[in-house]
Amino acid sequence: xxxxxxxxxxxxxxxxxxxxxxxxxxxxxxxxxxxxxxxxxxxxxxxxxxxxxxxxxxxxxxxxxxxxxxxxxxxx
Length: 76
Prior knowledge:
mainly beta, five-stranded antiparallel β-sheet, 5 strands, 32% strand, globular
């Protein structure tokens, strides 16, 4: 069965957690790829001296390189 990915799906690639932000057919996403945001470990809150205004870095990866991530833990 071929998995169809949707924007917002939590995924894992080589142990890294990410979220699908664009899919095949969206601008700059090649065929059989999705765009994944893996977060920014350098990010820092403005209240803690962060600079804000950073541009997200998104990677296009082949769909066969990612798997579904475990369900997230929601905190409030």
